[in-house]
Amino acid sequence: MDCSKHVGCGNTIGACAISLENGQAALFSLLLLPAAVLGLLLIFNTGQATATKLKVQNAADAAAFSAMEMQARQMNLDAYLNRASIANEAAIGQAVSLLSWGRYAKSAADNIVLVLGYLKAIPYIGQAFAIAQQIIETEGKLADYSTQSYALAYLPLANASDAAFSGAQAAFNGALFLNGQGFAGPLVEQVVKLNDPQARLVSPAALSATYASARSNYVSGVGSGQMKRDSYARQASLIMESSDAFTRDRSTSLGSPLSRPSALSLAPFKWGTRKEGGSQLALVDPADADSGYVWSGMDTIHTFIQFRRYGLFGGWKTTFDRSWAYGGAFSKPDTNNFYYYQSESHNWSQAWVDPDHLGDQKQLSLRSMPVYQGNWSNDARGANQVVSEYSDKISTDVPLGPSSRGASSGIAPFRDLVDRQADNTDNAPSYLVVVEHPVSAVRDSVTALGISQAAPKRAEWTDLRLQTKGAHDAIRAAAKAQVYFRRPDSLWPRADGRDERANLYSPFWSARLVDMSPADRALVQGLP
Fold first, then answer.
1. pLDDT tens, position by position, 308-353
2. Total Cβ atoms within 10 A of residue 191
3. Helix, strand or coil for residue 11?
4. CA 259 – CA 253 distance, rounded (Å)
5. Phi, psi values for residue 220, rounded to 5°
6. Distance between CA atoms of 465 and 260, rounded to whole angstroms?
7. How sure is the predictor about 236, in pLDDT bands with cuts at 50, 70 and 90?
8. What residues does 275 pair with on adjacent strands?
9. In angstroms, rounded to a whole number, what is the distance separating the alpha carbons of residues 57 and 193?
């Protein structure tokens, strides 16, 4: 029996069966191959669409944030310049105070020299009085000359600095509106192109104009009307609070032998000598909020004798009060109507009260001090001598003309929040950016791989082109951002423990992205 034939025959039959199975698998694989290719292309197209969408959204986010970051930096610059202007105004007040004090020192020296001129005739000790006379005369002239020279040299420079600070604010804010494209147009376009070179802004001018209008109602230059009056009053208040002690109060009592010794405190009489003086930044006319602010200072010294009204009891009655030295100065604005306040009823609180603190009695009490400290209340004679001596010639002594003193305002123009009564910490206007990327520029299976087909319309399901065409034939994304104010308490905590509200005096402005409202989304969809 030939077994090999049977074996060979069996192998042949098995091989035929295997060949038949392989043919069936190849046919099945051939049928699945188009579906697999379509699936891969669908995944590729979807991935490209998602990547493009993320790129467009990143471009919109970056553009909106960059625009508001520029705005935050500008507002921080405004804060620095406002602080610099306040410091500069305080320095002007100090210069006016030094000029007033120098004139007072010269007047005191002249009177002391006059007395010493009589005393130097006394035998034996007259020579000592003569030497003292020469020293005091020289020191008086030196005080007057040095303070006068300093004021004449420094004040024009300080006024020029005020004008520079004010001009810088206007110039830098104007730079945000370049090329007539509204707020930060070139910057937004540049950021969009850096993130997606093929994307473009959708109607940037219209959106920028909307933001610019809202921004002008949030922060602007101090123009006119009630905002100007309130802002200037607040600025004057801050300037006064920032001034040094020498500027605000130069009053002091001179001790024995010019004042009664403490051992005689129960005596029915007393005598004393007081140096009175102070400076202030106040309205030319307290009854006219638009009359302009002016720095003025006054210094006097007087000796008095007082007796009790009823022997050892009762109040004090002045029987002798003589001023023997005085000086004064003020920065003259564009007006000839200013005179030193000649009534005790004009208080610091009326002259430079901060309107934001009108209801705060604690704050208001800090400002309720007599004008020029005790000059009018304690030494009215000396105060009147200051007025008659200096008010008619101060304009030539201190060259502070209207062009350098902010015209009739007396304070250089500056920028401020429009509505300071509200808490503007988080309610700044938002800036909306809309970016779109044309579908034709997306790298889909057609543009990237060159795969196309000419299927009839009834076979649209086999179309390999990217199926992302919408109403705008583009992939669109939008982002919204705003500026906000936060004081970093961990770095610069407040001594009173309170939260600081938004203002243009502290440089703590930052930018952030914010959620879009349904109205914003509808606006984005409706843009052509």
1. 877 777 777 888 888 999 998 877 654 444 556 655 555 554 444 4
2. 22
3. helix
4. 8
5. -165, 175
6. 105
7. confident
8. 252, 301
9. 13
